[in-house]
């Protein structure tokens, strides 16, 4: 039985989520629902739930404020938001879960399944810390959580050299000859690293432009990374890549 | 460009032969903030000023300076202060701040002979600032310091000639230009020969030695044309116009005036103003009074805006005065002494114009960067309009609340609809999405329709094995109106057995998309609706319009055709085959 708390400034949104949860009476118990951050801090501290459904915009505050202010944080978080591509990129970055409102039952099931799998990791604090840290620093310092089959690791974006696709997995190569195998697709990393200096050079590869040591002229074009790895550039990505390299450096 | 070239090559310890990106990566991999780190960053800055100057360099430079100061690394501080000066002088166009930085560098250098080369560069730049500000005695003082160390520096000699030209000490000016020319010849520097000759010609006019002026001028033009010294052209042409005017050759005067006009974007106001004044004389001599009047008006107008620039200069002076008050770096007395003398003579502008031209070039680069920024802000605006989606989904969420708690179908329908909306909105920003994304979108749409029509039809989407749906690109939602037509018209009277088949195939260089239904067909559908085909034709019209846009933009021949089958309709849409990664 999971004890859950809902934080949302709109009563109907709380009701809507309660209705979705009501489909799973055996697995869930709603311990409480709060409409302001102040109430939620007191309530969550007292109730010590397993899971908090946290709205992103709460009056003039945000769910981030709640997480920053609450001292007790031994719970998992699922963010809920009506529509904010930018907010949910932040959640993806710290491997936190979110639900888009109105919440579809299949999405809800999906998130809960994933939460269960992660229960043994016991690393929600690390994720929330990363989320809050990213909230305060600019891109050059941001960190990303990479989940492997057995653990989740905090990595500085600026330490990623390149990512290579391996079917549904992605090999993430870091400075210092380190490699992490993530269970997410390269496409997901491409989206997440969109605001950074990364470039999808090929179907199989996403590279950090800061770590391109040199590139070959001619066709096919290769970029040679700092660690010596040479990566092929797709023919139709070449002009854009050269343009970007010239603009940035 | 010669000036900045001269200044920059000695800014760093050694000229950097590395490319910017390789420098970046070296700096990145250098974790320690030691003197090597400072040196690397100095190299990067020098290169960057050359290749892609921007305001942001200042911050980078200041950061580096801080590190150098922390390390008490004097050899690093000198070029960094000097860089600051170059950035202020040529990129930000704040000569006063530039002076400030140069003075800081000079203070560290002191009398150390090791840095004499850097001292010369800094003094040259300081001299140019004063020359630009028409503080001739100070400019002269700085240039003389350079000449003391480096007596054969022909560029500086030419600059000194320029000063004497401006102060009408014509004999001195002639001496310096000739000396500069001689040394430039020895060094085979065509730029400097041409420039000095052009300047000398201008001095000779003032000395009423028109014939000699003509000879020097024509030689200068010959060199300029031979080596295509584009950046010298505007000022040389203008000088030529003046020389021809003095020789009463009005045809040539007009010809060269017009040539200057071609450089309109790269010449400064005072040049333009003088140009029109010259043309006034030309037209007057040719008795073309209408044109003369017109030229006069233009000259007058420009003079007016020049006075405005004078005002700007005055404001800058006020600023520096404020700075001086605050920092006590410059004595207030001295600033008060500074008076605005606007000398309209264009004399010897060569060197100055070279500086200004390069400044203009840097400015243009900066403008381009700003333009890019504007484009970015336009994108931001589009993003802002997407605040509306937030409203849409909040509303949908509210509507959800009114749906009866037991009615799960309505609930499902609403959340599916929200998903479709969300995906559509996201994709609407994009020109192309992957075929897989488009299929997902189409599936979401078909599921909603199926829910609404209580499963009166089934559907299947087939992708040819030869196609990689993840790597094939299509314009978003092109097929949706066709599928909608099948559902709305084809199945309307068909109870329960409707079927839609969507296929994607690769056919040579095209992507063939087929939407096929087993409905009543177009003819019957029209009969049932009482001849009302408006909706059908509207969706095909929209499709045609979208294809037209794609075809014009990409020079392709995307097209579609509707085939009436015995039972139902088949639409074949041919799109250019496009992959995300080749």
Explain the layout of strands and helices.
The complex is a heterodimer of chains A (249) and B (582).
Chain A: E1 2-7, H1 11-21, E2 28-34, H2 37-47, E3 51-55, E4 57-58, E5 61-62, H3 63-69, E6 76-81, H4 85-93, E7 97-100, H5 105-118, H6 124-136, E8 143-147, E9 152-156, E10 160-166, E11 169-174, E12 178-182, H7 186-192, E13 198-202, E14 205-208, E15 212-215, E16 221-225, E17 230-233, H8 238-248
Parallel strand pairs in A: 1-2, 1-3, 3-6, 6-7
Antiparallel strand pairs in A: 4-5, 8-9, 10-11, 10-14, 11-12, 13-14, 15-16, 16-17
Helix pairs in contact in A: 2-3
Chain B: H1 2-9, H2 20-29, H3 35-51, H4 56-70, H5 74-91, H6 95-109, H7 116-132, H8 136-149, H9 154-166, H10 170-186, H11 190-206, H12 210-226, H13 233-246, H14 250-261, H15 269-285, H16 289-327, H17 332-337, H18 349-385, H19 387-402, H20 408-428, E1 433-434, H21 435-452, E2 457-463, E3 473-474, H22 480-490, E4 498-507, E5 510-517, H23 521-528, H24 534-554, E6 559-564, E7 569-576
Parallel strand pairs in B: 2-4
Antiparallel strand pairs in B: 1-3, 4-5, 5-7, 6-7
Please give a handful of descriptors for the protein shown:
heterodimer; A: 249 residues; alpha/beta; Rossmann fold; OB fold (Dihydrolipoamide Acetyltransferase, E2P); 2 domains; five-stranded parallel sheet; five-stranded antiparallel sheet; 8 helices; 17 strands; 33% strand; elongated; B: 582 residues; alpha+beta; Serine Threonine Protein Phosphatase 5, Tetratricopeptide repeat; Heat Shock Protein 90; five-stranded mixed sheet; two-stranded antiparallel ribbon; 24 helices; 7 strands; disordered N terminus
Brief description of this entry?
The complex is a heterodimer of chains A (249) and B (582). By secondary structure, chain A is α/β, with parallel strands linked by helices. Chain A contains 8 helices and 17 strands.
How would you characterize this protein structure?
The complex is a heterodimer of chains A (249) and B (582). Chain A has 8 helices and 17 strands. Chain A is α/β, with parallel strands linked by helices. Chain A has 2 domains: 133 residues, Response regulator (Rossmann fold, 3-Layer(aba) Sandwich); 94 residues, OB fold (Dihydrolipoamide Acetyltransferase, E2P). In chain A, the strands form 5 sheets. Chain A has a 5-stranded parallel β-sheet, with helices on both faces. In chain A, strands 12-11-10-14-13 form a 5-stranded antiparallel β-sheet, covered by helices on one side. In chain A, strands 15-16-17 form a 3-stranded antiparallel β-sheet, with no helix packed on it. In chain A, helix 2 crosses helix 3. The radius of gyration of chain A is 21 Å and the shape is elongated. In chain A, 37% of the residues are buried. Among the domains of chain B are: 124 residues, Serine Threonine Protein Phosphatase 5, Tetratricopeptide repeat (Alpha Horseshoe); 69 residues; 147 residues, Histidine kinase-like ATPase, C-terminal domain (Heat Shock Protein 90, 2-Layer Sandwich). In chain B, 68% of the residues lie in helices and 7% in strands. Chain B contains 24 helices and 7 strands. In chain B, a hairpin with a 4-residue loop joins strand 6 and strand 7. The N terminus of chain B is likely disordered. Chains A and B meet through helix 1 and strand 15 of A and helix 2, helix 19 and helix 20 of B.
